[in-house]
Design a protein that fits this description.
Structural class: alpha/beta
Strand content: 15-25%
Low-confidence stretches: 1-10
CATH superfamily of the largest domain: Medium-chain alcohol dehydrogenases, catalytic domain
Oligomer: single chain
Radius of gyration: 21 Å
Distance between the termini: 33 Å
Order of helices and strands: HEHEEHHEEEEHHEHEHEEHEHEHEHE
Number of helices: 12
Number of strands: 15
Number of domains: 2
Largest sheet: 7 strands, mixed
CATH architecture of the largest domain: Alpha-Beta Complex
Mean pLDDT: 91
């Protein structure tokens, strides 16, 4: 016999009321100064296509790429589909965690009410559209702000360590920029795989890097990590502009260099030239030199979720800022003060439920 309670439990839940207007960060033009580039505005809620979902954003996060999208620099960023003369997206947010509010007609894997994290468009807002193949179930036990710290930086670190670096147990791994968003994930992932990890950061951030599993920490303000006698099987360069020749010097004869980022300040290349040189040189030397563009996909978001739920990976959150202080959060990051990730809280409910 079916009880009234059981019958009610099988009935579809009423669709949440989704407002037509929302609060969001707004960017109308490219500008390298966050305080003048971004503003808070009331805007129309984004419309989704048949193959998209609408997410009620509970939290987002900031990474170095946020600044590049905001500034439109270096110029190849604009040619990559983000808008040649002005930003195509209304704000530079990409990371998100939140609750699915509605789904397009062709979406079958997600439904309203699902707790998700991943990549969206213009995510510094109360609602954002996203593709199902760039979302995954939010890791159990993480708050929404913690989950929002993972997607871009976590995916980049996972693919750099696992795929490009091919890190294995017993190898020596050097992580340059170990206290940053990508670096904090890379240290943990390499240590989880059984490598002997050396992290390079400023002395004030050494305690964080050591707590993540680094066996050795080098303070770059006191010591040149590329000048010592140590050789590494894998070097992960998450930023800066160190010459390829100096990076090769600390690699073993068949070591692997993975350039994850680079900041030279140039408007045309901005470090991309160093990555191109590594790619062109690699076929002519025994070492493997290269870079990559990270892939935003559900499978790797699920892999990160499994590592987090197994306590093998923990997002490092430096601070949380509200939506109306996104510019201040970007400033904190680009000025070099952040340890790990700066997250943006959007919804009032940011618990892990």
């Amino acid at each position: 016999m079916t009880t009234d309670h059981e019958t009610a439990a099988r009935l579809p839940l009423p669709a949440p009321v989704v407002p037509e207007r929302m609060t969001a960060v707004r960017q109308d033009r490219y500008d390298a100064v966050p305080e003048t580039a971004l503003r808070i505005a009331e805007v129309d809620r984004p419309a989704i296509g048949a193959d998209e979902v609408l997410v009620r954003v509970h939290a987002s996060s900031i990474d170095r790429g946020t600044w590049h999208l905001m500034a439109g620099l270096p110029y190849p960023v604009r040619a990559a589909g983000f808008g040649l003369r002005r930003p195509k997206d209304t704000n530079p947010g990409l990371n998100l965690s939140g609750v699915v509010a509605s789904v397009g007609a062709d979406v079958t894997d997600l439904q309203p009410g699902d707790h998700v994290y991943g990549i969206g468009r213009s995510t510094f807002a109360e609602y954002a559209r996203a593709r199902p193949d760039e979302l995954a179930r939010k890791p159990a036990g993480l708050s929404f702000p913690q989950a929002a710290a993972v997607p871009v930086s976590g995916l980049t670190a996972l693919q750099a360590v696992r795929d490009r670096g091919q890190v294995q147990a017993g190898q020596r791994v050097l992580v340059l920029g170990a206290s940053g968003g990508v670096g904090t994930f890379a240290v943990q992932l390499a240590a989880h795989l059984g490598a002997e990890v050396t992290g390079v950061c400023s002395g004030s951030k050494a305690d964080v890097v050591r707590s993540l599993g680094a066996h050795h920490v080098i303070d770059h303000t006191r010591e040149d990590a590329l000048a010592g006698p140590q050789r590494y099987d894998v070097v992960l360069d998450t930023g800066g502009n160190r010459p390829i020749g100096r990076l090769r010097r600390v690699l073993t004869p068949r070591g692997r260099l993975v350039i994850i980022g680079g900041e030279t300040g140039g408007r045309w290349l901005g470090g991309i030239d160093r990555q191109l040189r590594a790619h062109l040189l690699s076929p002519f030397v025994r070492q493997t030199l290269g870079t990559f563009i990270s892939s935003e996909n559900t499978q790797d978001l699920d892999a990160l979720r499994e590592l987090i739920e197994a306590s093998a990976l923990t997002p490092v959150v430096d601070r949380a800022v509200p939506l109306d202080q996104v510019a201040a959060g970007i400033r904190h990051l680009i000025d070099g003060h952040a340890r790990g990730k700066v997250v943006v809280t959007v919804a009032a409910d940011t618990s892990s439920s």
